[in-house]
Amino acid sequence: MSTATLPPIAVVIEPRPTLADTVADALRRRGYEVLVASTHTGGAKAVLADAQVDFLVAAVPAPGEDRSGAYLAAARERHPPMKTVVMLSDPDEDAKDAPLGAIKLVKPFTLDQLEDALTRAADLVLD
Q1: Is the dihedral of CA 88, 82, 39, 33 positive or negative?
Q2: How many helices (H) and strands (E) does the chain have?
Q3: Running DSSP on this structure, what letter comes out for residue 54?
Q4: In the chain, where are the structural domains located?
Q5: For the domain 9-123, what is the CATH superfamily, name and number?
Q6: 80: enclosing H helix or E strand
Q7: How far is CA 116 from CA 85, 112, 119, 120, in A?
Q8: Nearest of 21, 15, 122 to residue 70 by alpha carbon
Q9: Residue 46 has what pLDDT?
């Protein structure tokens, strides 16, 4: 009897449904099971329900939320090599609290820029 391997899990945090769907589709094409949340709080709840998150793509800052928990520290603690892309609305946004190795992507961006950011994050080796 063989044991099925579960796909890696990605979380997308983005308040705009169209953009969230675009990012989620790009991750699905890479083989991820994707959970989508419109807020960091919602993303944190989704993450806490799962044992491990392998990839996080999050809008920073999220409208109407403070920065506490914005980067899903619980997910990072559970799986330190989690790959991360932060989507910034302002190119001058201070993302110094972003997780180690987070790739920054400034909105609006093209599909090619999204794919490049996902690839750079996936290829980054975190210790």
Answers
A1: positive
A2: 4, 5
A3: -
A4: 9-123
A5: Response regulator (3.40.50.2300)
A6: none
A7: 11, 6, 5, 6
A8: 15
A9: 73
